Amino acid sequence: MFREFLLDHSKKNANKKALYELIHRKRLVSKGDLLDAFAVPQTTLTRMIHDLERNGWIQSGGIGPSKGGRPPVLYKINPLSGYIIGIEIARSVQVLLLNLEFAVIDKKVFPVTKKYTPDEMMSRIMNHMKQMMANHQLNDNDIVGVGVGAIGPVDREKGKMIRPESFRSFGWEEVSIVEKIEQEFNVPIILNNGANTAAIAEYKIQEYSNKNLLYCISGYGIRCGIIQAGSSLNSKQGDASSYGHMIVHPGGGCVRVERKAV
Predict the structure, then answer these.
(1) What Pfam family is a match, any one (predicted)?
(2) Of 13, 19, 157, 225, which has the fewest beta carbons less than 10 angstroms from its beta carbon?
């Protein structure tokens, strides 16, 4: 039911969903602060808060400091009204089960080696997902969604890893990650490159006043995820900010590389 609420993009549900998202972002917030943020009558806001509470999606977070009158009731989300599964496919694989406050409830990690074919690795990933859900007595309806961050480039619209670079396993060209998971789980699934998913996580977990963010990763390569106006900035293949061969010294000597400069 909670997942359907989040996926309901109707005009009727828009204000209530925006209210939930604000409470989620603020972590702990009073009705007065919510009223300042929404151009709705107080009776309408009270009704929306009641509906969210009645469904178990938000809850009381205690009493806030008084500003001269009665101390305000604070609201926060119910972190156990839904769960998220996060998957990282890089030089190692991580499978995470998180609550709605992004706290890690369960975690599995294993290295990527040459022995793993795409089918073998995806089978192991999905077995970990099933085991985590069984351990915590969850079913598909409890999972809000699955987010996959993978070595790019990726085709986000088709849910594919296209041609992963510097990957220890072979045979990963044009692998339909999303389709493979959909065959086992009836949940929404999103695929993006690892740098962008890291940037999204940083933006969502931290409370930034600025809606623009540049998140840089310096590991095996240099990659960046970009948040612009509160949304992930992607190229056609979801690899907008990977750095290829860069000019360091204009007019300098040649260097030996394994591929052509891009």
Answers:
(1) ROK
(2) 157
Q: Which two tokens stand for residue 20?
A: 């939930």
Residue 239, in any domain of the structure: no
| pTM for the model | 0.82
Q: One-letter amino acid identity for 237? A: Q
Name the amino acid, one letter, at 133: M
Task: Enter the tokens of residue 30.
Answer: 């009073």
Q: What is the pLDDT of residues 78-124, one digit of tens each?
A: 999 999 999 999 888 999 999 999 999 999 999 988 888 899 999 99
Rounded distance between C-alpha atoms, residue 159 and residue 144, angstroms: 18
Nearest to 75 by CA among 105, 32, 43, 41: 32
Q: CB of 98 within 8 A of CB of 84?
A: yes
Q: Looking at the domain assignment, is residue 211 inside a domain?
A: no
Residues 105 and 179 in one domain: yes
113-126 pLDDT tens trace: 888 889 999 999 99
Domain boundary residue, one of 77, 102, 129: 77
Residues 63 and 87 in one domain: no
Range of the domain at 89: 83-199
179: CB partners within 8 A, 6+ apart: 159
Q: What are 132-136's contacts with CB under 8 Å, separation 24+? A: 132/85, 132/95, 132/97, 132/105, 132/106, 132/108, 133/97, 135/106, 136/83, 136/97, 136/105, 136/106
